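S1.2 Input.
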Amino acid sequence: MEHRFFVEYPPLPGTVLEPAGVTLKPLQGLGVAVIGYGTMGRAHALNLRRSGIEVVVGAREGSARGPRARSEGFTVLPVAAAVAGADVVMLMLPDTSMAGAWQRDVLPHLQPGAAIGFAHGFAIAFDQVVPDAGRPCFLAAPKSQGDLLIELHAAGRGVPGLLAATETSPAATWDLAAAYGLAVGCLEGGGFVTTFREECVSDQFGEQAVLCGGVIELLKAAYDVLVDAGYGAENAYFECVHELKLITDLLHRHGVAGLRGRISGTAAYGGLTRGPRIIDESVRARMREVLAEIEDGRFARELLAEHERTAGLAAAEAAGPLARAAGPLLARLNPGGDK
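S1.3 Output.
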């Protein structure tokens, strides 16, 4: 094998790859089709092009994203045509659309030996895509939102990433995954070897228990408790929502122990003594239930069957007290921010 970025093949989970030990050579000269131009698909396409890799974008019929990709200088083709001409096919479609697109537009048109890649493990972990044995199939998952990935890559920086390959992939797939990760900017701070399933389960659990579920519900509950007790909506918003960024910034820079030393003594004592009363063993038990639903596929089946409920659920949340309180405050707190 010409390119050897890892000590052993397949590398063990937990292996960390440093960008200085990787080159773009396994990817150079190959044509990449990015299928889907959402936030992350756009980031991959722009960063690949900036790294000197040939890129086309595959857009589904009627997609509103195709015109944007075209306006940003990409050749935009129907998905089947983009797949047919590619050496590497990056499937960046929503999880709920992956199986249909794979069967209809991707599998029948793949070149022999063409690699398929993903930025998230769901399609492989839950059998929405089943590549043929021997087909190079890899994961390069940046630990970042797409717009930030673009911004950092343009500045010559990047983010950490997770790398994986299916068990039946040729050994050289690992080098291709590493080169791809370097090209899109997700080896900065380390490219961490994992599996499709572990990435997917951990990602969904983090979203549901913390990032997009648990934290948001905690903020809503805390805001409601203060306002229901007669405290001003502005005070409640500042203390329960606005200042969350201050704490997460400290957490990012210094970790939990470092954070404690950088806040007031009152905040440290109150958090250490009252926090465990809020997040107690009953919460951990419910987290284990949520994790079990992800692991055994119940959440995946529910998502695929009921994902159209998302817009209605989000609309109901947007009509709630915390979301309504944010409206007049956000413009004041973030002048010139996103519209």
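S1.4 Remarks. The two ends are 50 Å apart (CA to CA).
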